[in-house]
Write a structure and sequence with these properties.
signal; 8 strands; Carboxylesterase_BioH; AB_hydrolase_fold; Rossmann fold
Length: 342
């Protein structure tokens, strides 16, 4: 029922979003303040920090900290929004699109929301731990102890992001700015997820951040889609709502639903999902989770864009050519449902 009501409430938005809504020049961006800081972290003592003669092998480093950049607009403020990127990427996901259009972080600020952009632990500006690599390199550990680090190649990422079923073919009506793909590939970085525990250290860091800023919507994407739910399971403090965009996983419908009772949740998917074996089961699992959460007193909603007439969106819909129209849908939902002071 919640899905039906959500679709009905967005009909007027969906009609205009069939094509990118024309937008005037927004003018200068005025903010009250901006900055950055780190959340979390722990010290590690090691004798394999380096294999270079000019740098000591022994010492103490800090790891598992999460980098956070923020901007706070002037005037009356909406609920803060925290943007959490997915696999093989960094907070750049939410910034200027590959073809030079405004990203969601700026757009949300322009609409009155303090916006926090993170780099997942061990990614981007959030430092990793090189000691295990150097332990193998120096012969102190066997080769099979090397950490697993992976990168998504252009060809495999093509299907993962649903640009097309095979590189370089594209899906009919696909909205991604494929002419700027070279700029997208530059955004991708090595991913160390396989070396980290579950939940990822990013999760307790998100909980600490939510409490530090006294209330935020956790907006996640793909690999990080599960993180806001795991954060809520740790503590509901500071979580004003959850927007999970094309999550790699929703909580299993058989799990304890108590952490989500009364919590505003929106799970969003783009187009072509049922045509990709990687994504169809994930959508099915999220449908089952939404039903289970609501049966337990939840406020969870599922929005699949083609079901309200918006077609052509890829997995990277925050960069698609109608990205700001999608952002408008999310802002409308946040304005109606997010808890101002959880």
């Amino acid at each position: 029922m919640r899905t039906v009501l959500l679709a009905a409430s967005l009909c007027s938005i969906a009609v205009s979003a069939l094509a990118q809504t024309a937008r005037p020049d927004p003018g200068p961006l005025t903010i009250a303040r901006q900055g950055s800081f780190f959340i979390g972290g722990r010290d590690v003592k090691s004798d394999t920090l380096s294999t270079l003669p000019a740098y000591a092998a022994s010492g103490t480093i800090t790891v598992d900290q999460m980098y956070v950049r923020y901007q706070v607009p002037v005037g009356e403020l909406g609920v803060p929004i925290t943007l959490i990127h997915g696999c093989c990427l960094t907070g750049k996901t939410w910034e200027t699109t590959p073809d030079g259009r405004m990203g969601w972080d700026e757009y949300f600020v322009r609409h009155g929301h303090p916006t926090y952009v993170i780099d997942q632990v061990w990614r981007g500006r959030s430092a990793g731990d090189p000691s295990a690599i150097n332990a193998v390199r120096s012969g102190k550990e066997p080769v099979d102890k090397l950490p697993t680090v992976f990168s998504a190649g252009h060809e495999s990422a093509w299907a993962i992001f649903r640009f097309g079923k095979e590189y370089p073919q594209t899906m009919p009506g696909m909205r991604y700015p494929i002419s700027a793909q070279v700029e997208f590939w530059k955004q991708m970085v090595p991913d160390s997820l396989a070396n980290l525990p579950t939940p990822n250290p990013t999760v307790p860091a998100l909980s600490e951040l939510a409490q530090k800023i006294d209330g935020t919507v956790l907006m996640s994407h793909s690999q990080s889609g599960i993180y806001p739910f795991q954060t809520a399971a740790l503590s509901r403090k500071g979580i004003a709502g959850v927007v999970s965009i094309e999550p790699g996983a929703c909580p299993a419908p058989t799990e304890d639903m108590k952490p989500y009772a009364g919590l505003p949740i929106l799970v969003l998917f783009g187009d072509y999902v049922d045509e990709f074996p990687r994504w169809a089961p994930r959508l099915a699992n999220c449908r089952a989770f939404i039903a289970a959460a609501n049966a337990a007193g939840g406020k969870a909603e599922l929005l699949v864009l083609p079901e309200i007439g918006i077609k052509g969106n890829t997995h990277m819909l925050m960069q698609d050519n109608n990205s700001l129209d999608i952002a408008d849908i999310l802002l409308d939902w946040i304005g109606k449902h997010a808890i101002a002071a959880p």
